[in-house]
Amino acid sequence: MLWHNAVAFLTRGNFLLSYALAVPSKRARDKGIVECAAILIERLEEKGIGRYRPHLKDPWRLSVGTVSTHLFMAFSVPGIIVAFFVMDSMSRRASFESYSLPQTALLERAPSVVTPYVPNCTIPVQNGKILGGRLWTSEVGHELEIYNGSKVDAIIKLRDAVSGVLVSAFFVARGQTAQLSGIPDGQYKVQYAFGTQLALGCQGFADTIGAGEMPSAKFLVTDISGTQPATTKLVYRIAKTPATGDREISPLTISPEEFSRP
To answer: Where are the domains of the chain?
Structure first.
């Protein structure tokens, strides 16, 4: 609760109290919260919050311009690198691509209004749970597999590449692998978002750290030229280290609002 209250006070412009709550959050058991708290403390100290005035005295000394600047900088957290390694494997053929998110690609946002505190999901969400869209029960179809090697949770969304409509969304816990099976033929794009806590309703993050989209749509077509249908399996690995190789490509950064749309 200390960390989520720190985020709440940060969005309300109370930077001193946010700093005071972020400091003990660095001792949390959750490694993802510890990492986020350290980043928040560093950014606030860079702007003079906490380093020279470690105790809460007068939060109203900040001007409106200073508040806007600090709030913008608080959400501008460069340096988090998300690497994607993707393998499209057919039953009789395979190709390899690798993806990495540049250090400056983490979303920078400057809210024009005060963001209210977002209540958290109170129901435990298991790895691989479908959070929206469809769940296919057919054993025939394409497959999307995600390994989350990061220290925070992830939500993966599969969208129709033409209309942008959400096809399916599922939860991938930190350090876990999850699959989406039975995907019919079509043209799709894959989106992702990271966070440490699901919001009320358990369909999105209360503290989205960053969101992105794979740079090209995927055509999934069943090959019926052989004795039996051959489908495609997309395998993505999400990690905190940069991708390596001659075919490294950076995903596109998108806003949490774009990621959250239906």
So the answer is: 2-75, 83-260
